[in-house]
Design a protein that fits this description.
Elements (H helix, E strand, L loop, with lengths): L8 E7 L2 E6 L4 E5 L7 E3 L7 E8 L2 E6 L3 E6 L9 E4 L7 E6 L6 E6 L4 E5 L8 E3 L6 E6 L6 E6 L4 E5 L18 E4 L22 E5 L8 E7 L2 E6 L3 E5 L5
Antiparallel strand pairs: 1-2, 2-3, 3-4, 5-6, 6-7, 7-8, 9-10, 10-11, 11-12, 13-14, 14-15, 15-17, 16-17, 18-19, 19-20
């Protein structure tokens, strides 16, 4: 409704039949697909811009904002306050995107203005488990592969689209298959002591390796959005085009 000077909508997520939107005004709206008006509105959910939203569970959502905060909202509660708040330490770098692990819902990934990938364990602590150097400019979108979540995809203003692979056979892959200069990187990341099986939180040094490949190394224009549909990776860029990569794991 723009009649009252509405703000820009920055994020939308669907979990049939529910639809949640967030915006620059810090407002959260809950809709149902079969109803025209909002079922619920949290007017001043955040004092800063909300940049993205995703469902954590059927009744809970995650939001990220422009001061480096990740918040959990329980839609069953009538009070208009988050049930948990997590923050980046130090500089409050705006977070632009969020996704949760499809099988292990306590594992959450976010990306921000500094291009860093943050991995959070929302069962403990208020800070990220891992901060991984990633893109050279803003990270616009992050997505776990829905059926193969050892694989993660991120895209950025710097024109790159990265495939992060934490599958356990990475260490056995011959490195000559992945020649590509800066587009492929091997590195270890540190994580707090975890008793979790998730590769994203693992502290087992034999598995604590990650392979990163830039899927479009010659792209210079911003990659603004991505999604995974079955075996296909779909992404849109400032070239005013939508691209489909049909061979993700070829």
């Amino acid at each position: 409704d723009t009649s009252c000077g509405g703000a820009a909508c920055t994020g939308v997520i669907c979990n049939n039949p529910e639809i949640v939107t967030v915006g620059e005004d810090g407002r959260i709206n809950l809709f149902r697909a079969d109803q025209k008006d909002a079922v619920r509105t949290i007017d001043n959910a955040d004092s800063s811009t909300l940049h993205a939203v995703t469902f954590l569970r059927t009744t809970e959502i995650l939001t990220v904002n422009s001061i480096g905060q990740l918040k959990i909202w329980d839609l069953r509660q009538q009070r208009n306050e988050p049930s948990q708040v997590f923050s980046l330490t130090g500089d409050r770098v705006p977070l632009h995107c969020v996704d949760r692990h499809p099988n292990q819902q306590h594992v959450v990934a976010t990306g921000g203005q500094d291009g860093m990938l943050s991995v959070w364990d929302i069962r403990q602590g208020t800070m990220p488990v891992s901060l991984l150097n990633a893109h050279e400019a803003e990270m616009w979108e992050v997505h776990f592969h829905p059926s193969n979540p050892d694989h993660l995809f991120t895209c950025s203003e710097d024109g790159s689209l990265w495939h992060w692979d934490t599958s356990t056979d990475v260490a056995e892959k011959p490195s000559f298959l992945h020649q590509g200069g800066r587009s492929t990187t091997y590195f270890s990341h540190s994580a707090i002591n975890q008793s979790v099986v998730s590769a994203w939180l693992s502290n087992d040094p034999t598995k604590d390796r990650m392979e990163i490949t830039n899927l479009i190394p010659n792209q210079t224009l911003s990659v603004n959005s991505l999604d995974i549909l079955g075996p296909c990776l779909v992404y849109g860029t400032d070239a005013e085009a939508i691209y489909v990569n049909r061979h993700l794991f070829a």
